[in-house]
């Protein structure tokens, strides 16, 4: 638990399921006030609100498309109107589409880019503008992926967006460090979330993924949320511009694990 987080206000995009839900829940346990954004799953968002309030926090679910300026504005306005401000903005919403790249439609490329890349820009921009206007410290956390580092054939749009999130995070971390605004990314590996549900229900695919993880297991959303709580808290007060990989070692070139090469 991080006592400085109590009463702080956070926006979590894509908070209706998976890692977003877990971050909202963890923030609730920290006694934070959380705006839980969702796109098309009001029931999931209601569950996340309950998870926050059951654990001692406060929460409001807000439908918004974070790939639009109006969506980002709606989240900020709800935070300020209901909870009196903003301290932490988590750009978590994300999606992936599998396709051989030579067959990837422009529509699908644009869909992934709109959420995974433009959404991070719009969320960060509105949070930065708010923090600057208030002259207060601020904290932004972008959910990247191990695929900001590891190329991922048949997921080119996703890997390209996550690579972009990495340099975007580093760039704005540098640009706003003097304003006491910290910006960091989290790079989850293979986590037990709805985005992976179909893949992991296939035993062969599940085993294959586990074999690519030095720690030999899939991660939990709560383990990623623990990283978010630390980055949001003053315990990481001198940390900006990093990607915190929460991946069981997936980014350590596991193909070399027995001394091959
Ligand atoms: C993706 C997952 C994938 C994991 C490891 C994540 O960014 O969302 O689908 O299992 O990376 O490859």
Question: Care to describe what's here?
Answer:
This protein has about 260 residues and is of the alpha/beta class. It has a single domain (about 5-195, about 220-245), classed as NAD(P)-binding Rossmann-like Domain (Rossmann fold, 3-Layer(aba) Sandwich), CATH 3.40.50.720. It is about 45% helix and about 15% strand. The protein has 8 helices and 7 strands. The protein has helices spanning about 20-30, 40-55, 70-85, 105-135, 155-175, 195-200, 205-210, 220-230; strands spanning about 10, 35-40, 60-65, 90, 140-145, 180-190, 245. A 7-stranded parallel β-sheet has the order 3-2-1-4-5-6-7, with helices on both faces. The longest helix is centred in the middle third of the chain and has 29 residues, at about 105-135. The protein is globular, with a radius of gyration of 18 Å. Beta-D-glucopyranose binds next to loops.
The percentage helix is 40-55%
Number of domains: 1
CATH class type: Alpha Beta
The CATH homologous superfamily: NAD(P)-binding Rossmann-like Domain
Supply the helix-strand structural class.
Answer: alpha/beta
Strand order of the largest sheet: 3-2-1-4-5-6-7
How would you spell out the order of helices and strands? EHEHEHEHEHEHHHE
Largest sheet: 7 strands, parallel
Any low-confidence stretches, pLDDT <50, length ≥5? none
Provide the list of bound ligands, each named once: beta-D-glucopyranose
Number of helices: 8
* Cα-based radius of gyration, to the nearest Å: 18 Å
Classify the beta-strand content into a percent band. 5-15%
Q: What does the average pLDDT come to?
A: 98
Please identify, by name, the CATH architecture. Answer: 3-Layer(aba) Sandwich
How many β-strands, per DSSP? 7
The general outline is: globular
CATH T-level topology? Rossmann fold
Distance between the termini: 43 Å
């Amino acid at each position: 638990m991080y006592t400085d987080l109590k009463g702080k206000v956070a926006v979590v995009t894509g908070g209706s399921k998976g890692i977003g839900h877990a971050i909202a829940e963890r923030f609730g346990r920290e006694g934070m006030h959380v705006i839980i954004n969702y796109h098309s799953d009001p029931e999931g968002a209601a569950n996340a609100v309950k998870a926050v309030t059951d654990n001692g926090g406060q929460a409001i679910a807000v439908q918004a498309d974070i790939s639009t300026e109006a969506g980002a504005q709606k989240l900020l306005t709800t935070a300020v109107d209901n909870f009196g401000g903003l301290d932490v903005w988590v750009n978590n919403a994300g999606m992936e589409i599998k396709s051989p790249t030579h067959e990837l439609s422009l529509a699908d490329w644009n869909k992934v880019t709109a959420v995974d890349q433009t959404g991070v820009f719009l969320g960060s921009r509105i949070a930065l503008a708010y923090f600057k206007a208030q002259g207060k410290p601020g904290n932004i956390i972008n959910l990247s992926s191990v695929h900001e580092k590891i190329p991922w054939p048949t997921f080119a749009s996703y890997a390209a967006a996550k690579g972009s999130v990495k340099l975007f995070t580093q760039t704005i971390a540098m640009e706003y460090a003097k304003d006491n605004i910290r910006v960091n990314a989290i790079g989850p590996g293979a986590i037990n979330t709805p985005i992976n549900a179909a893949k992991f229900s296939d035993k062969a695919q599940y085993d294959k993924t586990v074999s690519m993880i030095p720690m030999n297991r899939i991660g939990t959303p709560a383990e990623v949320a623990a990283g978010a709580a630390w980055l949001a808290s003053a315990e990481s007060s001198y940390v900006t511009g990093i990607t915190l990989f929460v991946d069981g070692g997936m980014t350590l070139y596991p193909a070399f694990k027995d001394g091959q090469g």
